[in-house]
Amino acid sequence: MYKSMQREVSMFLFAKNTAFPDPFPKGAVILIDKPLGWTSFDVVNKVRHHLKKRLDNKKLKVGHAGTLDPLATGLLVICVGDYTKRIDEFQAMAKAYTGTFTFGATTASYDLEKPADTIFPTEHLNDDLLNVVIQPFIGTIQQVPPMYSAVKVDGKRMYKNARTGEVVEIEPRTVQIDRFDIFSLRPVPQPVAEHRIVSARGAEIHLYPDYAAGMQADFEVHCGKGTYIRSLAFDVGVAAGTGAYLSGLRRTRSGGFSIEDAWGLEDLVGRGWVLINMCFLKHKETTPPHKKQNKKHPPPKGGVKRGVFLFCVWWGLVFWGGGGGVHFPVFQTFKPQPTPTNQRINAYRGRLCG
Q1: Which DSSP string do the residues of 63-113 spell out, in sequence order?
Q2: Which helix (H) or strand (E) element contains residue 141?
Q3: With a threshold of 0.90, does the pTM exceed it?
Q4: What is residue 157's three-state secondary structure?
Q5: CA 324 to CA 352: how far, in whole Å?
Q6: Which candidate, 159, 21, 11, 6, places its Cα nearest to that of 77?
Q7: How far is CA 92 from the centre of its chain?
């Protein structure tokens, strides 16, 4: 199903180093490699701003088909125009991720957006244990979303409750994990990076250092819609008799779309919009004149030219018809009466032409 859907939209797919169809389609899909520290909404806003500007379409609709956390990177499917109506279809596609679990500590957000708050032993961990521990997480499982997530409870985003310290009961959700591979354990690389703010757009997004005494393992997961890899990290840590959080995450596939075909955001803004703009300008040059007019309020046929002509005739009658300067015989029959206004006009005309 996913491959057939990808083939269906391929003619409208704006993949890396390709130009949009000419003329610009009513619906399109753009593949973006989301950078670290950007929210998915940040990326949508960036794309929407540039498309509206380049295509001169203030009502253009733009949305994304699957949220990525601010500290995650990778494939973000952007839907434009008519394809925003199919976002739900794209969101239902299976997704693939790679990343890193860190064992020996937990954080409130289940990733490095919050600092390590609880320490656990790791001496008993080994590769064989982890490979046994992850087996129950393959298939259809029950999963509780992180407190710091966009899931709504009673109409309010959970991360807003978490920031105010409000405790909310979260119901488990059914998710599907088709593949789960975990690789060799290793110590956390030293020295660990310092705390830094990776984004200042809107609310600050923090990136805290890894737990220096912990152990790390890379992983690959193929899963269905609604799976939280942060929750998976936490649950694997509990099952292994320790604590764990997500140190890094990258989405590599969504349905038939691959990260290999995705634009880097800066590359898209720098070069991709040039391709779009060239296509758009060519389309404007070949657009028939009658399609460029405002159909609701079209200008009257010949109205502008007629207005200019009548103004010139009127000015000739008033300015040149009173004698002196340059004369046109046809205007001599329309000499205005010698009123004070006409006398001032004649005087002004005499200073110009005399």
Answers
A1: EESS---TT-EEEEEEEEEGGGGGHHHHHTS-EEEEEEEEESEEETTSBTT
A2: strand 139-143
A3: no
A4: strand
A5: 10
A6: 6
A7: 19
Unique residue bearing structure tokens 């739900």:
88
How large is the greatest C-alpha to C-alpha distance in the chain, in angstroms?
113
Q: Which helix (H) or strand (E) holds 217?
A: strand 215-223
Exposure string for 60-94, b = 16+ CB within 10 A, e = fewer: eebbbbbebbbbbbbbbbbbbbebbebbebbbbbb
Which amino acid does the sequence have at 42? D
Of the candidates 74, 32, 69, which has an alpha carbon nearest to the alpha carbon of residue 269?
32
| Residue 247 main-chain phi, psi, to 5 deg | -90, -30
pLDDT at residue 250 above 60? yes
Of the candidates 22, 42, 56, 69, the residue annotated as catalytic is 69
The set of residues, in sequence order, having a beta carbon less than 8 Å from that of 77 and lying 6+ positions away, is: 29, 30, 31, 32, 64, 65, 66, 90, 254, 257
Amino acid at 286: T
SS3 for 328?
coil
Active site residue 69: yes
pLDDT tens-place string over residues 67-112: 999 999 999 999 999 999 999 999 999 999 999 999 999 999 999 9
β-bridge partners, 180: 221
What SS3 state is found at 156?
Answer: strand
Per the CB < 8 A criterion, the answer to whether 231 and 144 are in contact is: yes
Measure the CA–CA gap between 4 and 21, rounded to whole angstroms: 20
pLDDT at 272: 53
CA trace torsion 290, 295, 298, 301 (10° rounding)? 40
Which among 1, 71, 63 is positioned nearest to 32, based on CA atoms?
63
Q: What is the pLDDT of residue 342?
A: 60
How many residues make up the chain in this entry? Answer: 354
